[in-house]
Amino acid sequence: MPTLLTEAERAAALPALGDTGWEAVPGRDAIRKMWRFEDFSQAWGFMSRAALAAEALNHHPEWRNVYSLVDVVLSTHDCGGLSMRDIRLARRMDAMAGGAEVERGHGAPIPTLTATRTA
């Protein structure tokens, strides 16, 4: 079973993800990113590649797609917050997104998640 990120893991991984456009989801131990692709076909292709990566990691995102926009939230439901599964999938999705435009300002800054979550 996956475990919540430790304080050290959060400090090591989350700032770099924040630099790429991942943001904290207010009120949740989760990260969110939105990509805008040139068209629906590119967005759907990204989602297909991301779905295969998610399946390989046995970790599935919360996401939605409207035309060229793909909106993704990552959190590990099995442990109730962020785990290494989220970090791995976020990095893979970033690598797959290519030159898609990143929509910013949809969440809170990542530093709000760098400390270990308290229950």
Automatic annotation (TrEMBL):
Its EC number is 4.2.1.96. Keywords: Lyase. CDD domains: PCD_DCoH_subfamily_b. Belongs to the pterin-4-alpha-carbinolamine dehydratase family. GO terms for molecular function: 4-alpha-hydroxytetrahydrobiopterin dehydratase activity. It comes from the Bacteria. It catalyses: (4aS,6R)-4a-hydroxy-L-erythro-5,6,7,8-tetrahydrobiopterin = (6R)-L-erythro-6,7-dihydrobiopterin + H2O. This is Putative pterin-4-alpha-carbinolamine dehydratase. Pfam families: Pterin_4a (PF01329). Residues 100-119 are annotated as: Disordered. NCBIfam families: PRK00823.1-3. InterPro entries: PCD_sf, Pterin_deHydtase. HAMAP family: Pterin_4_alpha. It comes from Ruixingdingia sedimenti.
